[in-house]
Amino acid sequence: MYIVTLAGSPKSVSRSSSLLRYVSQRLHAESIQVKSYSLSDFNQDALLHGDFNHPSIKAFQDDVERADGLVIATPVYKASISGVLKIILDVLGQDALAHKVILPLASGGSVAHLLALDYALKPVLSAMKAQEILSGVFAQDQQIQVQEHNVVLDADLKERLDWAVGQFQYVLRCRRSAGQANQDTLNVHPITY
Ligand SMILES: Cc1cc2nc3c(=O)[nH]c(=O)nc-3n(C[C@H](O)[C@H](O)[C@H](O)COP(=O)(O)O)c2cc1C
């Protein structure tokens, strides 16, 4: 299984990216291969100008194509997803998320924007033909303590993230066995004309 994570915050010390780090560690612990992307992995000029053929963008497109699923984190900025996340998603093809399972994560300062994942991120992912978008996790800032070199998540948040990771793995496994079953059916009952 191969998973791509995508951090939508422009900051290097970031609350939303700490959610992603926690989820990545959980996936690693299950021996799942994870490739992480954030703004610093791209040539920023190429990203801003939508240079689809730049090597840093090509590498990202190839990794997404290879991935079974993506974990995407965004801070809530101005009641929506971050601009950084949107420009990164914009360099992917229109159908780039077809056949992918997506686990969305967000952090925000106010519960008023608890539904930002639903009204701002999910429509974009659907437009990119994501096969299955899980309900995701929204974290409030006070659940994520930023220390000098470290970010600490509170227990309730960890519990919700653990549940979301379990659900993500479950859906990925179901899809894999359904794909295998379809393949077996085709092998056992070849259609002849
Ligand atoms: C430019 C900007 C706009 C923000 N707008 C909102 C907002 O509309 N709603 C909200 O709940 N939080 C808002 N916040 C707070 C962030 O969503 C919150 O602090 C988040 O955890 C930051 O994540 P990051 O550290 O990964 O960037 C805003 C923060 C910034 C810097």
Automatic annotation (TrEMBL):
| EC number(s) stated in the UniProt entry for this protein | 1.5.1.38
For the protein in the UniProt heading, the enzyme class is: oxidoreductase
Domain spans labelled NADPH-dependent FMN reductase-like = 1-142
One of its Pfam families is FMN_red
Keyword annotations for this protein, in alphabetical order, are:
Flavoprotein, FMN, Oxidoreductase
Q: Which Gene3D superfamilies match?
A: 3.40.50.360
Q: Where are the transmembrane segments?
A: none
Asked if the Swiss-Prot or TrEMBL record annotates the protein with the keyword Membrane, the reply is no
Any one Gene Ontology molecular-function term assigned to this protein's record: FMN reductase (NADPH) activity
Q: Which domain of life is it from?
A: Bacteria
Acetylation as a keyword of this entry, yes or no, is: no
Per its UniProt record, what NCBIfam families does this chain match? FMN_reduc_SsuE (TIGR03567), PRK10569.1 (NF007859)
Q: Family membership, please give it.
A: Belongs to the SsuE family.
Which protein are we looking at? NADPH-dependent FMN reductase
Q: What organism does this protein naturally occur in? A: Vitreoscilla stercoraria
Q: What is the lineage of its organism?
A: Bacteria, Pseudomonadati, Pseudomonadota, Betaproteobacteria, Neisseriales
